[in-house]
């Protein structure tokens, strides 16, 4: 993982994150100063960021918001104090209200980003300066250390480029925490096309079949927040297995950024549902499909992963590639 340390210092009222990347300082600088790249990692998994303003000049401001799988929003605002390309920039980092103004009820902090050469390639040193111990403690208690670590650990796929990161590797699984697992798959198609194939029932029935020998006679999708969906599979003649299905509800959907978040529960079972967060990112005509799954607990996570679900997902995505092609 790129992040090597996150330390808090109550005496100097600072929090410092250090990360290393096998790229040039200039390449790392561009990832932090271009909003289309920032959006791909600034928010931690499950809270992607969307920049609505990014005036990268001394005295300029940037506004962004992060949206949770359940649709809650958290806003942020930067005021650029100093810029020294490609070595450093400094901002006042503040929580923001829905209109983009500073939230006066939460602390504002001075934050520096330093980009240094290292034996690996480039080192990021991100330091946040607080005005009080209470402010430092408040931000830490809100999960800043864990959130920043998970966010910056997403930078590899941005710096490498999607094809270098994922092409030819099939379905990849990353265990992020006791309750969060992310599955990714590169598809050689624009994300508008992938989105349609993922959300149109008669197309879904052609590829979301898992191992060979199964059909999907039931596929109902209500692509609205609060709308329900239902999937059902059955074995073809001569194939062992019993019919089964999944159902759930749409928690959040944003076609403009190609994101669809649903609950998922096996039909007929009373265990707690998972939350599945689908996001599509496109680069040079290729789309990285990412599904962040939130399990109710570690035991459920381990039980589901032990079923060999990755192999079934990969077979489905192979069929999807044929449709897209």
Explain this structure to me?
This protein has 325 residues and is α+β, with helices and mostly antiparallel strands. The protein folds into 2 domains: 3-160, START domain (Alpha-D-Glucose-1,6-Bisphosphate, Chain A, domain 4), CATH 3.30.530.20; 163-324, Alpha-D-Glucose-1,6-Bisphosphate, Chain A, domain 4 (2-Layer Sandwich). It is built from 10 helices and 16 strands. The protein has helices at 25-33, 35-38, 133-141, 144-152, 155-160, 162-166, 191-199, 201-207, 298-305, 309-324, and strands spanning 3-9, 14-21, 49-54, 61-67, 73-84, 88-96, 109-117, 122-129, 172-175, 180-187, 214-221, 228-235, 244-254, 259-266, 274-283, 286-294. It has an 8-stranded antiparallel sheet with strand order 1-2-8-7-6-5-4-3. Strands 9-10-16-15-14-13-12-11 form an 8-stranded antiparallel sheet. It is elongated, with a radius of gyration of 21 Å. The protein starts with a strand and ends with a helix.
- Provide the gyration radius in Å: 21 Å
Biggest beta-sheet profile: 8 strands, antiparallel
Shape annotation: elongated
Q: Structural class of the secondary elements?
A: alpha+beta
Task: Sketch the topology as an H/E string, one letter per element.
Answer: EEHHEEEEEEHHHHEEHHEEEEEEHH
Number of helices: 10
Helix fraction, binned, reads 25-40%
Give the CATH H-level superfamily of the largest domain. Answer: START domain
**Order of adjacent strands in the largest pleated sheet:** 1-2-8-7-6-5-4-3
Low-confidence stretches: none
Q: How many strand units?
A: 16
Number of domains: 2
The CATH topology of the largest domain is given as Alpha-D-Glucose-1,6-Bisphosphate, Chain A, domain 4
CATH class (first level) name of the largest domain: Alpha Beta
